[in-house]
Amino acid sequence: MIESLTAYLGFGSNLGNRLGFMQQARQRLDALPGVEVLASSDHYQSAAMGGPADQPDFLNAVVAIRTDLQPKSLLLSCLDIERQLGRIRQERWGARTIDIDLLLHGRLQCDCAGLTLPHPRLHERPFVLYPLYELAPNLELPGLGVTIARLVRGREFDAGLTRLGPW
Hints:
CATH superfamily: 7,8-Dihydro-6-hydroxymethylpterin-pyrophosphokinase HPPK
Oligomer: single chain
Order of helices and strands: EHEEEHEEEHEEHE
Largest sheet: 6 strands, antiparallel
Structural class: alpha+beta
Number of strands: 10
Number of domains: 1
Strand content: 25-35%
CATH class: Alpha Beta
CATH architecture: 2-Layer Sandwich
Helix content: 25-40%
């Protein structure tokens, strides 16, 4: 057991009822023992990055949670929620009903089998940066020594990203 801390999760969906899958995932996450959803960013729409061509657009958001779960336990719980909501992993970066990425777990930095924290490329992805900025603009990324606000400042809002509002 660890002391309760704040973690941030990235949600994405580009199949079926995208918003519905994200809402169900947030509800299931909040129902987990040792997890409390604190806040959710607005949801954003963006084109798929990488993977097969002609995928539907994604809905994305970031969720802040309070948790006393170890990072690997939290990750396994997120993978279980993905399975419950019909996620099938057939091809890398393929279309999906729901994707839940563990972005940050307190100030932890690790590069372990199956888990890297902070999430790699978090600082390069507008569909993660802007929602995270809504929730924690002054959060300093462990290992980078820079705040989310600094990463967003001076950067033009990505033309391929559309802010859709609360969910």
